[in-house]
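Subject: Interface between my chains keeps coming out wrong

I've been trying for a while to get a sensible model of this assembly. When I model each chain on its own everything looks fine, but I need the whole thing in one frame so I can look at the contacts. Pasting all components below, labels as-is. Any help appreciated, I'm running out of ideas.
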Amino acid sequence: MSLPIVCILCGGQSTEHEVSLLSAINVFSAINRSHYTPMIVGVDKDGLWRLYPDGDFCLNSGDPSAISLNPNGLDVFPVHSAKGNYLMELQSGKTHPFDVIFPVMHGANGEDGAMQGLCQILNSPCVGCDMFSSAACMDKDIAKQLLACQGIRVAPGQVLHRTRPLPNLQQLIDEYGLPIFVKPSRAGSSVGVSKAGSLEELQAAIEEAFRYDSKVLVERRIVGREIECAVLGNLNPFAAVPGEIIPKRDFYSYEAKYIDEDGATLCAPAPLTEDETAAVQKLAVDAFRILGCRGMARVDFFLQPGGTWVLNELNTIPGFTRISMFPRLMQLSGLSYDELVDKLIALSLEVPVSQFK
Ligand SMILES: Nc1ncnc2c1ncn2[C@@H]1O[C@H](COP(=O)(O)OP(=O)(O)O)[C@@H](O)[C@H]1O
Ligand SMILES: [Mg+2]
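Reply #2:
Try treating it as a single job with all components included. I did that and got this:
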């Protein structure tokens, strides 16, 4: 019997293109070849799909600062037919069938529901959340509203729209205090996120955030520890042992995530009491369900000094290198990286493709 073919998609047009390549290298090598046959497709920065039959999809794979997609892949596009799905080579018309798509892509057009919607149109199983929950989690404004109305605490704040008049900024400061956080509603990796300490800085932070999104959140700064919870499953999801991010400077910025090696410490497991662990695991699974997630999500919280949990955000395709928080937490809960990749694919094949079934 032939094995299901898993089409790993990586790269993409978002600011997290390179991060995605790093994750995909690990996923591609981890796929259990006795369960699945992997194929790898890079989406370049113009959105073109490239197939690498020999698996040679990355240049400078050992150097995170110079890594890039190999431009010498075969130009392909996805086709849905009565005989199943395949990638078709643009030049020759040659076809390459596949059975499931594994998007290892962060941000716009990868994690935000667009790719998941394409999978639905192709009638292809897709690893991770479906179109709706991906889109809802990607948009911090929408996610916060959905969580808040189910009683989950989120940072108080206000939404600004590029096309609407700005509110009085001094009033925002009066209401939420200083310093104040500003972020694009639909971005990731801390791109466009600022901590503003004055009216002038708030003005500049809003302009900066509007470079990345037409919708911007201004939020009260939450003082607290940053705790992350990895959730895995479909109908009966479970939360792994929580982890902690300890930023060395200011906050968990883009630099702290990817550039400055000493920017932050990832602490797994997080030093929490049993009760704290149980509380955050329950909240993470509740949030996962409220937003209709399936497969996986990393749910990020602040733990305030008084013991209150504030949910910051959900990531439906969290960083997935072997040293990333999500796989590390799963490993602590007994699932090795390779087993996790295997499980995620199995979970995607367990559920109907259509959201309505
Ligand atoms: N309201 C807030 N209070 C305190 N710190 C915040 C707040 N919002 C964001 N941060 C800091 O900025 C980082 C990035 O913001 P986040 O909302 O997680 O966006 P991203 O999706 O880019 O990761 C967080 O990990 C945290 O360090
Ligand atoms: Mg974050």
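Reply #3:
Confirming on my end. The chain has ten helices and 19 strands.
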